[in-house]
Design goal:
Layout: E1 12-17, E2 25-28, E3 43-48, E4 51-61, E5 72-73, E6 76-77, H1 86-98, H2 103-110, H3 113-116, E7 124-130, H4 132-139, H5 147-157, E8 163-164, H6 165-171, H7 175-184, E9 188-194, H8 215-226, E10 232-238, H9 244-257, E11 261-265, H10 273-282, E12 287-290, H11 296-307, E13 313-316, E14 328-334, H12 352-363, E15 366-371, H13 376-383, E16 388-392, E17 403-408, E18 414-415, E19 418-419, H14 420-431, E20 435-439, E21 448-451, E22 468-470, E23 475-477, E24 484-486, E25 498-501, H15 505-515, E26 521-524, H16 526-529, H17 534-543, E27 549-552, E28 565-570, H18 584-596, E29 607-612, H19 618-642, E30 649-657, H20 660-672, E31 680-693, E32 696-705, H21 708-729, E33 732-737
The structure holds adenosine-5'-diphosphate and zinc ion (ZN) (2 copies).
One zinc ion binds near residues 456 and 494.
Length: about 750
């Protein structure tokens, strides 16, 4: 048989749009363009039903899957050059396959909003120029009739190369009206020129000098650099302050010297101005920043700067893992255990940490995971020799590790939420000029509003949850659905007086103002961070030493270094000890170690006090006797015995409906139609720990397997049927591969 080796021009374009579709849509090229002019990775405008959508070309196909006559044509090509290069397309495709999420939605979430909406990939500047006819008109009899038009034409004609629309706008408030008439008469024309992307901030001066690396730091840098030409996953383990960031910076400098770019990922709250400044001072190149707090214009500028290679280093949070850093040569994931790397509310539920590894492997470059408390997944991969470990001991000039101690709540009475030994310790440290950090992972005044006469507790009408008392704001708030109510003074059921029960940051602040009245105090939680000056002002007042006590939530455990803090108090650790979620213990231990790491960084030996009703709990005991290492060894053995991740692969199918029954029935039906295989177990469905949230009922079905392959094969076969079922039952559902909580 003769195989004809003839190149057939591709006739069909497969295009992904931002919609929940299983596969890309097929289109013909626009009438005026041959398909070769429309590269994969370029954006196009396409008709979808009666509206229009922006899509990205995935590939060319020779044969459509339906009759050619049924296909519609692309309306417009937005990017003559691919917006997304083949390497990024490969990463996005991998993400879509692995998380079983529509490719079009994955791509959309990876792009800055402005590009998603069709804005140009390169910054364009609008300009206006007078035509030959226009210049003639100025002198001839055919002059514009209105004085305004005449003046505008003269102004534009005075700049033979053209004048920026911005400048016109600055001089002429309503210039566009006059311009419209001039343009209609053919006297002026609109131009566009490419602009250099304005980087958020140019670098000033020469790079700041680096400290002399310790032996361990030097070894880490040398080993990473020696393997820089291929994929390698490095785990850099070291307490807060041991010098991990210094290693990142040195590796980044070496990568830059080889002409390659650097991507540095940090947790959402870890991206502090101090870190940005440190990178800008130390690296002799422009550094771009990408995070959720930026405006659309700023994000677009950062993205463009990376893509054009103007910014050589990108510092960013979760979604920056998809950013087009030119010539990427190194990825760093700081605080790799942090749960904010996982997208968990809506959209594709990816882990940026895991995708950093995928991207590094695809590009054959090193990836560096840093943490004082590595995740169990990472520890497991270290043990299996898939990753290589590097350890930084405490630095010589660093204070010794803080001492951890438990305060038994059963043998001490609480005074305003604090046990006597805790109050004594605080006074002692404050008297010795130390600063005190009080961690309580609950914002608001109190978690419960109770009627002592009839036992009524203020409930959220939309959730299986209590409303939190926010006393300063005079409100009850639901932390799950956002509901707000005025704070009542009397019971809704019997009219008796009500009182707040339990502690939140706001109430601890009040207690401490009474107990330690002489010392300035600040509070850092989501509520105060939204105030004037934001979290920066609060952090600054601790750093300057002006504030002596800092009360806060999780927000204080990340990114900030407080050299003057000598005592850390952990108030409600017990919450994490008895959770139904298998990851709760890991998270609690990480939080305690991370918050402890904020203490005694310089002069003083730090002290950490943990208030608990369960001082003999094995988790707390292992943490106290052997630190995170010991705790992790014990807890990992438990995970292995129970066959939980990282010793198994997990996905969870979550559903919500107007009734518990609706959600459970849907999941039962889904379970019934799942292909049966011995390699994969289905567990459930069960109602979620807090089943009712925002008027909807939530339930879940666990999918578990010892290996990744069978799990994904099952999902591939099964999900189309799940989608059909959901449509019929009007149920919302979402699949979460590698979930970080399964409550
Ligand atoms: P980590 O990232 O592990 O928290 P950093 O790299 O931020 O630690 O280091 C903590 C502090 O110690 C910083 O002020 C840093 O400049 C300093 N430092 C780090 N390495 C050295 C070193 N080899 N010599 C002197 N100072 C160092
Ligand atoms: Zn009552
Ligand atoms: Zn609610």
């Amino acid at each position: 048989m003769i195989v004809e080796n003839q190149v057939v021009a591709p006739r069909v374009l497969r295009i992904a749009i931002n919609a929940p579709l299983c596969s890309p849509l097929e289109y013909l090229p626009p009438p005026n363009l041959s398909p070769e002019c429309i590269p994969a990775g370029a954006r196009v405008r396409v008709p979808v039903g009666r509206r229009e959508a922006i899509g990205v070309v995935i590939e060319h196909a020779e044969q459509p899957s339906v009759a050619v006559s049924a296909l519609r044509a692309v309306r417009e090509l937005l990017d003559p050059q691919p917006l997304l290069d083949p390497a990024l397309m490969r990463l996005l495709k991998w993400t879509s396959d692995y998380y079983h999420h529509p490719l079009g939605e994955v791509i959309a979430s990876a792009l800055p909003p402005a590009l998603r909406q069709g804005r140009p990939a390169q910054a364009l500047i609008e300009q206006w120029r007078a035509t030959a006819a226009g210049r003639e008109a100025l002198t001839a009899a055919a002059q514009p009739r209105s004085a305004r038009q005449r003046e505008l034409l003269a102004l534009i004609a005075a700049a033979p190369e053209g004048i920026d629309a911005d400048r016109l706008a600055a001089q002429w408030p309503r210039w566009r009206e006059a311009a419209r008439t001039l343009r209609l008469r053919g006297w002026i024309e609109r131009l566009e020129r490419h602009a250099e992307v304005a980087l958020p901030q140019p670098r000033i001066g020469s790079p700041a000098p680096a400290p002399l690396l310790s032996e361990a730091q030097q070894l880490a840098v040398t080993r990473i650099e020696a393997g820089a030409a291929k994929f390698a996953a490095w785990v850099l383990q070291g307490a807060t302050g041991s010098g991990k960031t210094e290693v990142y910076l040195q590796c980044a400098l070496r990568t830059l010297a080889r002409g390659r770019g650097v991507l540095l990922l940090v947790p959402e709250i870890g991206l502090t101005p101090q870190l940005v400044q440190r990178c800008r001072e130390r690296l002799d190149v422009p550094v771009a920043v990408l995070h959720s707090g930026l405006s659309d214009a700023e994000r677009l500028a950062a993205w463009r700067a990376c893509r054009q290679g103007l910014a050589r280093v990108l510092l960013g949070t979760r979604s920056a893992v998809f950013a087009p850093v030119a010539q990427l040569g190194l990825i760093v994931v700081d605080e790799e255990h942090d749960s904010s790397y996982k997208q968990y509310d809506g959209g594709c539920r990816y882990s940026a940490r895991d995708l950093a590894l995928v991207r590094a492997r695809q590009l054959a470059i090193p990836v560096l995971l840093g943490s004082a408390t590595p995740s169990f997944e990472t520890l497991h991969n270290l043990q299996a020799a898939r990753y290589q470990g590097l350890v930084l001991p405490r630095r010589n000039d660093q204070a010794p590790a803080p001492r951890l101690a438990l305060v038994d709540l059963r043998s001490h009475t609480l005074h305003l939420g604090l046990a006597t030994p805790v109050i004594d310790a605080m006074r002692r440290h404050l008297a010795a000029a130390g600063q005190v950090l009080v961690f309580i992972n609950r914002r608001g005044y109190a978690p419960t509003l109770l009627c002592t006469a009839c036992g009524w507790i203020a409930p959220c009408p939309a959730c299986d949850a209590r409303l939190t008392v926010h006393r300063a704001a005079g409100q009850l708030r639901c932390h799950h659905c956002g509901r707000l109510e005025p704070l009542p003074t009397r019971c809704r059921r019997c009219g008796h007086e009500v009182k707040p029960v339990g502690q939140g940051t706001e109430r601890i602040e009040e207690s401490l103002r009474e107990l330690c009245a002489a010392h300035a105090l600040v509070r850092l939680d989501r509520d105060t961070a939204a105030g004037p000056g934001g979290s920066e002002a609060i952090v600054d007042s601790v750093l300057s030493g002006e504030a002596r006590i800092l009360v806060g939530t999780q927000m204080i455990t990340k990114g900030h270094h407080f050299p003057g803090v000598s005592l850390v108090v952990v108030l409600n650790a017990d919450q994490g000890l008895f959770s139904t979620d298998f990851r709760a213990a890991e998270r609690l231990a990480q939080t305690i170690v991370q918050v402890a790491g904020r203490a005694g960084r310089e002069r003083l030996q730090g002290e950490v006090l943990i208030q608990t009703e369960y001082p003999e709990h094995p988790l707390l005991q292992s943490l106290l006797s052997g630190g995170y290492e010991r705790f992790a060894a014990v807890a990992l053995a438990e995970r292995a015995a129970a066959q939980w991740p990282p010793f198994a692969r997990l996905a969870v199918l979550r559903a919500s409906a107007r009734s518990v029954d609706g959600a459970l029935k849907f999941l039962s039906a889904a379970r019934q139609c799942a292909p049966s295989t011995a390699a994969v177990r289905l567990l459930g469905p069960v109602a979620s720990a807090m089943a009712r949230r925002a008027e909807r009922y939530h339930a879940q079905l666990l999918i578990e397997s010892a290996e990744r392959g069978p799990l994904h094969r099952l999902l591939d076969q099964w999900l189309p049927q799940v989608q059909t079922l959901a449509r019929a039952g009007r149920v919302r559902y979402a699949l979460d591969v590698d979930p970080i909580d399964i409550q």
